[in-house]
Amino acid sequence: MALALLWLMPALAVAxxxxxxxxxxxxxxxxxxxxxxxxxxxxxxxxxxxxxxxHYQGLGVEKDYGQAARWFKLAADHGLAGAQYxxxxxxxxxxxxxxxxxxxxxxxxxxxxxxxxxxxxxxxVRYFTGEGVAQDYPQSREWFARAAAQNLSSAQYxxxxxxxxxxxxxADSVEANTWFLRAADQGNADAQYTVGVxxxxxxxxxxxxxxxFEWLKxxxxxxxxxxQLNLGMLYxxxxxxxxxxxxxxxxxxxxxxxxFNAAQYNLALLYLEGVGVGKDPMQAYAWxxxxxxxxxxxxxxxxxxxxxxxxxxxLAEAQRxxxxxxxxxxxSGD
Length: 334
Hints:
Elements: H1 18-25, H2 29-41, H3 45-57, H4 65-77, H5 81-93, H6 101-113, H7 117-129, H8 137-149, H9 153-165, H10 173-185, H11 189-201, H12 209-221, H13 225-237, H14 245-256, H15 261-273, H16 281-293, H17 300-309, H18 312-329
C-alpha cells in the first residue's frame, strides 16, 4: 500500500461579489477577472486569492505563476486560509516562487491551524516523508486524522495505512479497515482497491469474491492499474462474476498499457494459452519481454523459451513489438 499524494489545483474561494460569482458560473472569466480586480483594490482578500487562482490557471488572463503567487501572498498575509494553502502549494511545486519544501510547510501550518483540510493533509504527507520538516509519524497521524475527520478521503486512506502498518500509532487492523472503508465509500480509488484485495484474499475482512469484484471494479474504472489487473483475473477465473475471459483480458490489457509489469506478464500468459484472446506467440513474447524490462524476472524463462521456438522473422517482429510497447507504455512495478 502506497501513501496517497493529493495534488490539488489552487482553491477558488467564494467572494461576496455577486457579479463575479455569476460571471464564474457562466464561465465569463474576463468579467469575473474585472470584478475580482475591483474588489481586490478595495482590500477584499478573498478576491485577491481568486485573482491568484485565475492567473494560476489562465482563466481570462494569460497563465502567470509569478502573478498568481503575488496575489496568493497578499491574501495569505492577511490570514486567508485558502490563500495560505495555495501559497504553500506554489512553494512545494516551485510555481512562481523558488521551490522550498520548508516554506511550503510554513504556509501549510498556518492554513491547517485554521482548519483547512487540504493543508492538514499536506502536513500529514510532509511529516510522513520528512520533506521540509523532520520525519515524525505521530505528527503525520495527527494531521491526517484532522483532515480525515473533515471527510477528506485521501486523508482517511492514509490514516488507514498508518494503522495497518503501525506507523505513529499502535497497529490496529480494525481501525485501519474502518478508515479504508470510509475512504472507499467516498470514491477514493486507492481505498477501493485495498478493500477489494482484502475481500479477495480474506485478509482482515471475511473472504468474499462478490464484494471483491464490486470494489475492484469501482477502483479499476478510475484507472488504478492494480485494480484493473485483479479485476481482469476475477473475470478470467469466474470469481465473484460469471467467467468472461474476453472481458478479463481487456481489463488486464488496460493495466498493461499503463505500464504495469505484472499485468504485462499476465497478458502474455493469455496470449500464450489463447485465453480471452487469440493464441499469439509473438504477442506473448513481446509482452513477456516488456515485463522483464520492468523487473518481472519470472517472465524471463518463458520469453527465452519462446525465442527458441519462433522462426527468425517472427522473433524479429516480436522484438520490434516489445520495443514499441516499452516506448509507448513503459514497464514498472508498484
